[in-house]
Structure formats: structure tokens, C-alpha cells
Specification:
The chain is of the alpha+beta class. It has helices at 4-18, 23-28, 51-62, 124-131; strands at residues 30-38, 47-50, 71-80, 83-93, 99-100, 103-111, 114-122.
């Protein structure tokens, strides 16, 4: 079992890898049985994803970013056991000229040194306005 400090380092590494837009590397940080949940009720974004579903979602969305990636910057983290809570911000300029900057709370759960589950909470109104309005 990894320590809380190791899990925080792994959560921060996820943000670093996520910020590259490399979907294969992002998926490699996840446990084979991983799930990823996004808050809200936005069709095509919110809901639960398995590893393959997350890969499909990310492959679609990275194509609309000017540099191919959404930059995630952790600002605070706390861990207990196999769970890590992370506050973070994001930044991406879209090819249509809009700028997406959001605030997040992520809850990570780890197993065998990999991310078993992620719950992503964000300002869904801002996400909808930038991506869908």
C-alpha cells in the first residue's frame, strides 16, 4: 500500500500528464478497473466513464484546444489512506478563441499505485458556456 504522500505525488503527476493532452499517457496512470466521474448534467461531458470511455472523451475534447491540451494546475491537496483530495485550476485556449479557465475539486482513490477512481467537481455552468453555448 502506498503512503498518503506517495498518493499526493501520484495525483500531482496525473495533473502533469493530463496537461500534455497525451491520452495514452493519461490512461496509463489509471488502474485497469478505473472509473472517472464528472459532475453535473451536461450531455457528452458529465457522468461516469470507464477507462475506454474516458479515452474516447479525452480524444474528442483535446482536438478543440489550441495546443491540444487542458492544463491542470493543483493548488492544494490532502490525503488520508488511499484517497487524495485536490483543489486545482485549469486553462486552455480553444481553437474558436474562447478561453476555458475553471476551478476543480478532484477526489482520487488509489489501488496498487494506480488511480482507481476520480470524481471531478467543477463549475459546470462555465464549462457549458465555453464548450456548448
Amino acid at each position: 500500500m502506498s503512503t498518503p504522500e506517495q498518493n499526493i505525488a501520484s495525483a500531482n503527476n496525473f495533473a502533469k500528464v493530463f496537461s500534455t493532452g497525451d491520452v495514452e499517457q493519461i490512461l496509463d496512470t489509471l488502474h485497469p478497473e478505473a472509473t472517472y466521474w464528472v459532475s453535473g448534467g451536461i450531455d457528452g461531458m458529465s457522468g461516469s466513464y470507464d477507462k475506454d470511455g474516458l479515452g474516447a472523451l479525452l480524444s474528442g475534447v483535446t482536438s478543440i484546444y489550441e495546443n491540444g491540451a487542458l492544463e491542470i494546475t493543483p493548488t492544494a491537496a490532502i490525503a488520508q489512506g488511499d484517497k487524495v483530495a485536490v483543489e486545482a485550476t485549469s486553462y486552455a485556449k480553444l481553437k474558436n478563441g474562447r478561453v476555458y479557465q475553471n476551478q476543480y475539486h478532484f477526489l482520487f482513490e488509489f489501488r496498487d499505485g494506480k488511480i482507481l477512481s476520480v470524481k471531478e467537481y467543477m463549475d459546470t455552468k462555465h464549462a457549458y458556456d465555453i464548450f456548448y453555448a
